[in-house]
Amino acid sequence: xxxxxxxxxxxxxxxxxxxxxxxxxxxxxxxxxxxxxxxxxxxxxxxxxxxxxxxxxxxxxxxxxxxxxxxxxxxxxxxxxxxxxxxxxxxxxxxxxxxxxxxxxxxxxxxxxxxxxxxxxxxxxxxxxxxxxxxxxxxxxxxxxxxxxxxxxxxxxxxxxxxxxxxxxxxxxxxxxxxxxxxxxxxxxxxxxxxxxxxxxxxxxxxxxxxxxxxxxxxxxxxxxxxxxxxxxxxxxxxxxxxxxxxxxxxxxxxxxxxxxxxxxxxxxxxxxxxxxxxxxxxxxxxxxxxxxxxxxxxxxxxxxxxxxxx
Length: 311
Known about the structure:
- This protein is an alpha/beta fold.
- The protein is built from nine helices and 13 strands.
- The strands form two sheets. A nine-stranded mixed β-sheet has the order 5-4-1-8-9-10-11-12-13, sandwiched between helices.
- Strand 9, helix 5 and strand 10 form a beta-alpha-beta unit.
- The model is unreliable at 303-311 (pLDDT under 50).
- Pfam families: PfkB (PF00294).
- Residues 38-287 form the Carbohydrate kinase PfkB domain.
- This is Adenosine kinase.
- Keywords: Kinase, Transferase.
């Protein structure tokens, strides 16, 4: 079967309600008057990765469990509007939802509705196998029940990546993803010793590359046993929201990976994409384009244009 999908994104489809707050942590009070207000829109981790990949010209397909509800309609519309194929499997508990509290400096705190994580423990294997067999790479979001799909993806021969987000290095829920993936992303925010955690993932699992992002401090890159620091990219505008920056980083990195770039170059692409995401208000979507990514990664004016990499 021809692999006519560059990246199959599995999981992480949902809807966020974005609430702008005066600061974080939010001071206790009976009420707060907030501006610019409250907005509900489609877009969680898997959605943002898929949007970022598609904006960079990669053939992208998204698959997840989605409810027959208003929130599910928002997710379907998001993919339709951006031309991203979506395989929406029925979810009896409804579409995943979250509330994001966003401060004026762009920091955010997310509240996830855990009841939406309930549902079937197994996925339709035939559908997963079919899409995996047509994909060069699969990016798996750590939402239930996608851990069950990891062996199917491995059998199909696609390379795998995952994002552990703010893993503390100990919670066993994340381990199935961490040890099955060839490429692992995670945040350094909750790690006492990021290097130790990264080397542990590489030693115990399949990953040859592990990336720990650290916001404005850049990222740590462990590639084939060598640890290096990747500087943060300069945002192209004011930082207004950090939501989705890690997902954008993953999309930029995967763009480089699937174009045959070395890990440091991939990480540079990730840093540029993540910095761009921080300038996009959480009430809308706006992933960096291929032209802008290549130009900013090279340190040139995007208007000048660059010849894209092969692939």
